[in-house]
Amino acid sequence: MDILGIETSCDETSASVVRNGTRILSNVVATQFEFHKQYAGVVPEIASRRHSEVINYVIEQAIREAKTGFDGIDAVAVSSYPGLIGSLLVGMIAAKTIAAALALPLLGINHIEAHLYSVHFDNDPVYPLVALIISGGHTLLLLSESIGKYEILGSTLDDAAGEAFDKVAKHLGLGYPGGPAIEMLAKRGDENAFSFPIVTLTGDRSRNHPDRYNFSYSGLKNAVINQSERFRNPGAEETAANIAASFQKAATDVLLIKARRACSDLGIQRVAVAGGVANNSRVRKLFKNEAEFESYFPAHELTQDNAAMVAGLAYHKHRLGERSDLDLQPKSRLENLVKGKRKTHGK
Ligand code: KG4
Ligand code: ZN
Q: Which terminus of the chain has fewer Cβ atoms in its 10 Å neighbourhood, N or C?
């Protein structure tokens, strides 16, 4: 079964054809960071405009590379939430048009579930597992019982993990996106040069603490920005590297602490890590070296937003009989996400 996936939830325009949920026949990703970098963040109006300019070419290229032709496609899947409404709409209109014109089933896909699915292409994950989705827009700790089923354990109370990397990078004058730039600079620094706060929100306190699985990055971000203000002078490059390394340490240590905590509370020994920040080599090393659990990461090219993860997940949803109507609507938020509370989500 060959599924055409479409992804436009934020600032990547992507289309992919995936066979039977496992074999990526094509995965075309048009990034927009050139258009957003002067603003050091994604500008929603620019994102949706750019999506509409390139979407047709991206889809055509994905079909061409997959060598299926449009008539070889069995279903169309599209990220429908969460994301920027204007951006989601572009991909959804394209998906609906193809589904209607070719009389194919349409599947609206949860972008977060799709990120989690991205680990499946290079691993054979055993469920249940704990999942961390860490990107520019999300920091989520999940419990997943099977593909497409999950419960939100915790999320960020303020900035997302990737957003903190981007904002600190902006302050250090490193450009956008900030994560890779911080990682690069950190390689030359001493991560113990500054002791920035590792914000667990709870210390080691009781299991019932409402923030036991939640994150907060704004305090760390401000601590780093305040520290770097003091060193704003020429010749401070070594200091900048030390700041980047020490920030990266604090920002990533907390991810391991929370994942460990969830695993030990729930008696689970497996963690899947996905989203742009899963690219970070310190994160990969921390999790791979962990004795308490096994970890699953996507290939580097599948950590960023891409349509292969959408088409891959859709295969399983399609097998379960899930379909969306042509009046499918985009949603900006993840439903049932209540900060500080455990809420069940998924079908
Ligand atoms: O998943 P993604 O491509 O887009 C969404 O936000 O959905 O994630 C992008 C985020 C950006 O904030 C970027 O700075 C961060 O992932 N990122 C990294 C690294 N590569 C990308 N953060 C830390 N280290 C990296 N190597
Ligand atoms: Zn994403």
A: C
